[in-house]
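Appendix B. One record, verbatim.
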Amino acid sequence: MAFFSAPRIRTLLVGGLALGLGTAQAHTGHGTSGLWTGMVHPLGWDHLLAMVAVGVWSVSALPQQRAWWGPAVFLLALIFGASLGASGWVLPGLEQGIALTVVLLGAMLVWARHPLPLVVGLALVAGAAVLHGVAHGAEAPGAGFGAYALGFVLTTAVLHWGGMACGLALRQYAQRPGWALTTLGSLCSAAGLYLFSHV
């Protein structure tokens, strides 16, 4: 229905970005203890936008029966990156790199109707996930990493699911789904550039 028309979706997205981007902050300084903190940690704008974008991209660019591959690859690479971060692995310019993953994933949405080769697309998703995982792992608590990791994995999975639902809604209900997807990707990339300029 009409609720999912392209103009209304655009208005909601612009409004949400305008309200929320001002709250973007660096990763250092978060509390890091337990399941709840792990669940809340991915809700910063950089993580949130990237994870939702992966879900939208997966249902828009991957073959229908393989749409779950994007989230699955992201989650596996996220856990790998988190283990690196928790072990003390340091990556210079990590925050800038994470912001650029938002730009990249937005661009992948813009070009989702002309998808990359499957391996290339999934490799880019995995690379982005490793950076996000390193950030999560670097802030892991000294004890109870398992509960903290479970928390951010659960939230990530929910955000992927939300992105996939959004992508399916655009495909089914938007009057011009290609245009809506291009707008969504452009807004995502613009948000990534904003975050990059404020790191």
